[in-house]
Specification:
The protein has 14 helices and no strands. By secondary structure, the chain is mainly α. The longest helix is centred in the first third of the chain and has 18 residues.
């Protein structure tokens, strides 16, 4: 970053700032992430670099998605996708497409989400991008989990998790382990849920991924209900503290679980 600033390379500064913003996203510091992506966007526009501008908009959309502003996320990613298409940037086009899949899934529009993820998967396959394929396959698994297609969800979430593990993408591995835990909970397999969420918790704490740490703590807590109420409550309260601190939309669900069980 300092080198780009020293030589007056605004495009380089924008990409460096976006990279920092992504790091802050992974660690759950959404305020810092937003600030970096907004700085990057301003520099890209000042430099007249439309590709860097579109990348910045994509990354801002991810923060909006993570903080529960799903309408804004969809608008950002649609804008970025149109820009990438006009710039003939296929990888970035695929990235914006898969992000739209996650936006629509989070918003509860599962048919649209599945369509975006299938489109993204096709694009990533054409590009030979295994990481992108893992994102799209995982996204399809999330849609299947949400719509009750548990066998399909198991196949796709497992495949995506294994791909991320092979590629060394530990953050996404933690995300998928938590999702496998959610799947186990949905099928009343409490021991499996405990195992998946515990694995996710170990990775999340090691890499400082607070969103996934909160998800994992809450998942472990739920898996312990109703048998070990005191232990479950401790996990759930720890999860709530983290989720509220980082502004995660998952905080309300954790609070609802505590209230529902009188904890």
């Amino acid at each position: 970053m300092a080198l780009y600033t020293e030589v007056g390379d605004q495009r380089g500064q924008a990409y460096a700032l976006n990279h920092l913003g992504l790091v802050y996203q992974d660690t759950g510091d959404f305020q810092a992430a937003t600030a970096r992506h907004q700085q990057a966007l301003a520099l890209a526009r000042e430099a007249g670099d439309r590709l860097a501008e579109a990348v910045s908009i994509t990354d801002l959309g991810q923060v909006q998605q993570l903080t529960g502003d799903f309408r804004a996320a969809i608008a950002s990613h649609r804008q970025a996708l149109a820009m990438f298409q006009s710039l003939n940037s296929p990888f970035d086009q695929a990235d914006a497409t898969v992000q739209l899949g996650f936006d629509e899934w989070a918003f509860g529009n599962y048919t649209a989400a599945a369509a975006w993820h299938r489109q993204a998967l096709d694009l990533f396959r054409r590009l030979g991008d295994r990481l992108g394929q893992a994102w799209a396959i995982g996204g399809l698994g999330e849609v299947q989990l949400a719509t009750g297609d548990y066998p399909g969800a198991s196949a796709n979430l497992t495949k995506a998790m294994q791909l991320h593990r092979e590629l060394g993408n530990r953050h996404s591995e933690a995300v998928l382990l938590n999702s496998l835990g959610d799947l186990a909970s949905a099928t009343s397999a409490a021991e499996d849920a405990y195992r998946w969420h515990s694995q996710a918790l170990s990775i999340a704490q090691e890499i400082g991924a607070q969103v996934e740490e909160a998800r994992a703590l809450a998942g472990v807590g739920r898996s312990l209900l109703p048998g070990s109420r005191a232990e479950a409550a401790a996990y759930l309260r720890d999860a709530l503290v983290i989720a509220q601190r980082i502004g995660s939309p998952g905080a309300q669900r954790i609070q609802d679980t505590l209230t529902e069980h009188g904890l």
